[in-house]
Automatic annotation (TrEMBL):
Protein origin, superkingdom: Eukaryota
Reactions this protein catalyses: a di-trans,poly-cis-dolichyl beta-D-mannosyl phosphate + L-seryl-[protein] = 3-O-(alpha-D-mannosyl)-L-seryl-[protein] + a di-trans,poly-cis-dolichyl phosphate + H(+); a di-trans,poly-cis-dolichyl beta-D-mannosyl phosphate + L-threonyl-[protein] = 3-O-(alpha-D-mannosyl)-L-threonyl-[protein] + a di-trans,poly-cis-dolichyl phosphate + H(+)
SUPFAM superfamilies noted in UniProt: MIR domain (SSF82109)
Membrane topology: Multi-pass membrane protein
Gene3D superfamilies for this protein: 2.80.10.50
Gene designation per UniProt: PMT2_2
Protein name per the record: Dolichyl-phosphate-mannose--protein mannosyltransferase
Annotated GO CC locations: endoplasmic reticulum membrane
Enzyme class: transferase
Length: 305
């Protein structure tokens, strides 16, 4: 039914702005269908959310967050307006709309978005949106003559619905994420996958000149060795479960289970995580490391005897 309906009605209508960009591009006389497919630095673009009903990212300088900080609220609305347009700016703050050759946006590139109407940068912060219990709120702040690390967004391409080469950003057909830069100098949060490798140590106090500096970082050789033991241990179970090493299996499975119990659940938690959440699991990992050393030493002694 819907296939027949949309096959017969191919002309652009007044309500097509409510439909996805892929649908609009198939309509006759559509503005979307005649726009350039390639996206490059200096392009004037609109940003559409992939969430149903969120529409295009919209900023109006008359809509500010309460508190007097002059941050303009960035929301999603249906339909194109003059407040939907953004300039794609490179990290060196130049529009580069006259460069030759043209510099296209690639997967992993860091970009900035300058709002055409207000001259403010698209940013995100630690605060949650007022109407949602998850995510971070987006806003527009600053001006076109100054910038900060809060303006940086990393392009993460998810899929491409055209035969064009992968890894480049295209209009309409590319599904992508805009990821706030996770490696700026105020990095405190960290993902659970990074904890066993000690990738992101954490400061525990402010960097003010009058405060005592405290930096949480582990002993790297012990940290990595304990991680190696925890990762290799499941492969050892079959060998240890038989023969003279069975007693080692019976004792060590409690240590590995303690590590897994205190570490793996963080992957399912929808909350902010920090490296100190790994300390309990690290306690069991270090005990397992000591146990492995003892096991290898006894096994070696048995071979000698």
């Amino acid at each position: 039914m819907f296939y027949v309906h949309f096959s017969l009605l191919r002309n652009r209508g007044t309500g097509d702005y409510k439909m996805p960009s892929q649908f609009q591009a198939l309509q006759r006389n559509s503005v979307v269908a005649h726009q350039p497919h390639d996206v490059a630095y200096g392009s004037l673009i609109t940003l559409r959310s992939n969430l149903p009903g969120f529409g295009l990212v919209y900023v109006n300088e008359t809509f500010n967050f309460p508190g007097g900080d002059q941050e303009c609220i960035a929301v999603g609305i249906g339909g194109k307006q003059k407040h939907n347009w953004w300039n794609l700016v490179s990290t060196n703050l130049t529009l580069e709309n006259s460069t030759s050759p043209v510099k296209h946006i690639m997967d992993g590139d860091f970009v900035r978005f300058l709002h055409e109407g207000t001259g403010r940068w698209l940013r995100t912060g630690v605060h949650k949106p007022y109407h949602l219990g998850w995510g971070r709120r987006m806003f527009a702040d600053g001006n076109d003559t100054s910038s900060s690390l809060l303006d940086l967004w990393r392009v993460q391409i998810e899929s491409e619905d055209s035969p064009m080469p992968k890894g480049q950003l295209y209009a309409v057909t590319t599904s992508f994420r805009l990821v706030a830069d996770p490696d700026h100098h105020k990095h405190i949060e960290s993902d659970p996958w990074s904890w066993p490798f000690l990738l992101y140590p954490m400061r525990l106090v402010s960097w003010a000149d009058d405060s005592i500096k405290c930096y949480e970082v582990g002993n790297l050789p012990l940290w990595w060795a304990s991680t190696l033991c925890c990762l290799v241990y499941p492969l050892q179970m079959g060998y240890w479960h038989s023969g003279e090493l069975k007693k080692f299996w019976d004792a060590s499975k409690l240590l590995w289970g303690g590590w897994a119990l205190h570490y793996l659940p963080f992957f399912a938690m929808a909350r902010v995580t920090y490296i100190h959440h790994y300390l309990l699991a690290l306690y069991f990992a270090l005990l397992l490391l000591a146990f492995e050393i003892q096991c290898v030493a006894r096994w070696y002694m048995l071979k000698l005897l």
